[in-house]
Design a protein that fits this description.
The chain is mostly helical. It is built from 10 helices and no strands. The chain is elongated and about 60 Å long.
């Protein structure tokens, strides 16, 4: 029995799909994963029926929207493991992971399983933390990483990093870089401390 091949999407259907994914990434980044599907459709300029035809559930939409970020997470850890200096690789994992997460509240929520009905990142997160554990063991054997570090500390770091808010992207990124540097220094065994990145000027809180 011959199984029919799937038909490629027409150009207009492909355009609709890309618009929906772009709208989802934008809204997830600014509002988190709880944004309604109808709001995503409106932002994309398509009808709800078009959205649900391509992405029948929020879960499938989040999976597609963040597939590239998941691959990036794995690439970051693999790059760290490939570094002949395990401490350098470990520091790079923290810096680049923070950099990846700073502009996307939705990805952080999905990765941390804070919205389990939308996406289950358990397998990906487990593989990443397993690789981080191996990198940490190497850095500990080299005497650079404090011996009481555990991979769940990286989860705690991402949870704290998620709390960074600023009015501009430049301020968020500057704050994220300083945060990553402080985290790295807290994990380091050596008393030598590199200068921190410049502190970003935070906007004053609104008056009540």
């Amino acid at each position: 029995m011959t199984v029919p091949l799937p038909h490629p999407l027409r150009s207009d259907a492909l355009d609709n799909r890309e618009r929906v994914l772009e709208a989802a990434r934008t809204l997830f980044a600014t509002e988190g994963l709880n944004v309604p599907m109808r709001e995503i459709a409106r932002h994309a300029g398509v009808g709800p029926a078009t959205l649900y035809r391509r992405f029948p559930t929020k879960r499938t939409l989040v999976v597609e929207a963040y597939a590239e970020e998941v691959r990036a997470c794995h690439a970051i850890v693999e790059e760290g493991l490939a570094d002949p200096d395990p401490w350098s690789g470990f520091c790079r994992v923290i810096e680049k992971t923070c950099e990846l997460h700073i502009d996307s509240l939705g990805f952080t929520e999905a990765f941390m399983a804070a919205y389990p009905d939308a996406m289950d990142f358990a397998a990906d997160r487990g593989r990443m933390l397993g690789a981080v554990a191996e990198l940490a063991r190497r850095a500990q054997r080299a005497g650079d990483l404090r011996p009481d570090f555990v991979p769940d500390d990286l989860v705690m770091v991402l949870m704290a990093h998620r709390g960074i808010h600023a009015t501009s992207a430049a301020t968020r990124r500057a704050t994220s870089r300083r945060f990553a540097a402080l985290v790295i220094q807290s994990f380091q065994t050596s008393p030598t401390r590199a200068p921190l990145p410049p502190a970003a000027r935070q906007a004053p809180p609104p008056h009540g």
